[in-house]
Predict the 3D structure of the following.
Amino acid sequence: MNSPKIAPAGQDRHAKGLAGVIALNSSICFLDGRKGILVYRGYRIEDLATNSTFEDVAHLLWHGHLPNEAERTGLCDQLTSLRDVPEAVLDMLRGLPSGNNPTGALRTAVSMLAHYDPEADDMSSEANYRKTLRLTAQIPVLIAAFARLNQGKEPVAPRTTGNTARNFLYMLTGEEPGPCAVEALDAALVLHAEHGLNASTFTARVIGATLSDLYSAITGGIGALKGALHGGANTRVMLMLLELHKSGEDPEAFVRRKLAAKERIMGFGHRVYKTLDPRANVLRQMLLELGREQDAMHWVDLCCTLTQVVEEEKGINANVDFYSAPIYHLLGIDANFFTSLFVMGRITGWTAHVLEQWGDNRLIRPRAAYTGPMGLKVNR
Ligand code: CMC
């Protein structure tokens, strides 16, 4: 019998979950987790959420500067003209078994888009930028189509006018959305557009760095975002809020019960922020305004109690997913689609990162500290 030796000492010095590891240089996003600062290419997130649109931010992330009037019109025209998705992809969505996870359906649809794009494997920077635009224009159409199909309704064709937020809300219902709803969704998209080297962006960059195509990188990014610890948290937050609202359980007792059972409260905690997530701060204010406007202050009160108890008990703050969930709910969006909405915003950050990666590429290939046996021999 072989007697296993242990792995050489000193190989286990690594940051678990790569926490705090600087993996690459990037000029896209700055994050200060202690001070609660988030900056896209030099601009504070609070400023962008109040004074720019999602399309402006897309331009900023891709080109490094906010658009002038001509650039803004040019980008909006390009995005509106690229919204049509191949009928075969809609047919695939129609054919999925009912109850399918919407983010999973979106991941499959985005992967499938590649087969209908003659430029899918063209790695020129011009073709990659055109794919960036097509993905940004078509992802909202895919999400809205699947939301309609889930309700047994046919998709509503996209309009060739209106910004991303307006067109998306229109495609969900077939009716013109109100200006407040458009404004709230537009700001939410700005807040979700980019967030440094988070798990899904890292995934997209790792795939891009192998010189695989943009569709593969974005498909991988969606797969990573879908997880409960990342973008998948917002759906779970809403299910929790709905359950608490329905059951009437005391939110304080609920939190204490969950924590005693060592369960996580979705929408709280963050790998980087050790203070309030600045996106959550902006969204909290938006929730207050929407709650007042729609006479739905019970969601505001419930969120307020939950944040107080979790902060008291665990010393952790609410994150972006905690407040985006009730906001999307008040916009009439089904909780199961919240993570897809995250994709709708984050596609701009992912693509900016993959384009940046290709501008100065090197294969991303870390190593693992081996902890298994050594010196074994096959006995024949
Ligand atoms: N509920 C209860 N306890 C928590 C939570 C939470 N939501 N988050 C962290 N903790 C505790 C955790 O149990 C641990 O406590 P202890 O030291 O007593 O064992 C401590 O805080 C540190 O946790 P960690 O898992 O080491 O921290 P991390 O940096 O690896 O995790 C996180 C970050 C976001 C995965 C985690 O906070 C979490 O699971 N949150 C809930 C899911 C969530 O809301 N995700 C959305 C994140 S923001 C949007 C995005 O970027 O996707």
